Amino acid sequence: MVKPEPTPPASSLPAEAATVPLDSTTRVTPIHPDLTEIKVPKGALPSYCYDPVTCQPIKHRDYQNELMQLEEQYKTREAALHAQEEIAKEVKEKIETAERKREEVQKSIDKKVKERDTEMKVVSKFQETKASDIPS
Hints:
Layout lengths: L28 E2 L8 E2 L23 H10 L3 H57 L3
Antiparallel strand pairs: 1-2
């Protein structure tokens, strides 16, 4: 399956468009029922009319080529909905994989910190013992 480019080239993005954190209070409406983690602002437009990265309304003229390619690729509404469901599953899987990796890294960091703390305690005890062995 050929996947369309999700964002236009950087040159066509407006200067004020910045990435909005996923936990921002402006994010209210999920972009898809299966992707409740990714939300966009609630407004007059449907959720699919907002850029999921910048939360800015999408200007269809900026995506005209991509929309034409999608219309050619998915001739029927059913085909488009099926493709949307498949992409939503893939995105959800990628989010879950990233979360698992993040948790593994955090566990590894916590383990290393604990090891370092234990080593520091041993070194400080050793230094105290060595310092007390020195006659005054």
